[in-house]
Amino acid sequence: MEKIYVFSGLGADRRIFDRLDLRGFEIVHVEWLKPRPAEAMESYVFRLAEHYQIPKQGALVLGVSFGGMCIAELSKYYDFKKTVLISSAKTRDELPKVLGVSKIFPLHKLLPEGKPGKLTAKMLYWLFGADTKEEQQLLSAILEDTDPDFQKWAVDKIARWENTHVPVNCLHIHGDKDHLIPIQYVDYTIRIRGGGHLMVWDKGAELSFPIRNFLL
Fold first, then answer.
1. What separation in angstroms does the CA of 107 have from each of 65, 165, 187?
2. What global pTM score does this model have?
3. DSSP secondary-structure letter at 130?
4. What angle do CA 62, 27, 179 make, to 5 degrees?
5. What confidence category does residue 100 fall into, taking pLDDT thresholds of 50, 70 and 90?
6. DSSP class of residue 166?
7. Which residues contact 163 (CB under 8 A, 6 or more apart)?
8. Lowest-confidence pick of 73-87, 96-110, 198-212
């Protein structure tokens, strides 16, 4: 059974993949490591790849949001067989320009250490597209479990990201209601109508067919 290495996003973990059907593949969930003080993103993703023994040639990879950015960074040095990006950006040019990345991603202020307050929670729900009670409960639970040091480190790396390399053999799926990475900036392969930043979870069934069709 072929392995697929799956990277979650900032403020997310393996729970967001619960509705994605990847039957026929051995899923390796790439969990975030503790970043070292002032660690560069390139150093971090190399360390992550080594920790999970991702082959330098021929691997299948899938990433959501920040996880997709990590894959794009690795793809400069790793020859992936196929890459799937969901609600993510391949290069710095696919991140919002008008307001600036640091304003679009004020997550160092928004992402709470512990349970968010009501006002913060409402903003987070809007940014991540968590519209239903079930989605909001999932997002809140994940955020409460996320390492605050990793959050702060990752936000800084997003704001400073300078990648211009586009991964090859890449399927990029993006929602037209994504508030974190608006679709107008993205050179996507498939557009998902009504898809927000968390669509890998709430639209997992819709995403599964094109992903499996691409990977097989």
1. 13, 25, 24
2. 0.87
3. -
4. 35
5. very low
6. P
7. 69, 72, 73, 76, 90, 91, 92
8. 96-110
